[in-house]
Design goal:
- The chain is built from 1 helix and 3 strands.
- By secondary structure, it is mainly beta.
- The protein has a domain of 34 residues.
- A hairpin with an 8-residue loop joins β2 and β3.
- The relative contact order is 0.18.
- The model has no long low-confidence stretch (mean pLDDT 77).
Length: 58
């Protein structure tokens, strides 16, 4: 696998952009497992362990 980074003239470096991003507040990550008849959703709050999944029928 080959990774390529394209840097255009006049733009800031990747390090400069990364240092300007300051996340604030809580983060919620949602994971979805989608099948033909069943959906399963999992939520993770901040850096805690994910909560148990909730199943929904389509």
């Amino acid at each position: 696998m080959q990774n390529t980074i394209v840097h255009y003239e006049g733009t800031t470096s990747l390090e400069a952009v990364a240092t300007k991003v300051k996340p604030c507040g809580a983060r919620i990550k949602i994971g979805l497992d989608v099948h033909a008849r069943l959906y399963v959703a999992v939520a993770q709050y901040d850096h805690l362990l994910p909560k148990g999944g909730a199943a929904f029928e389509a």
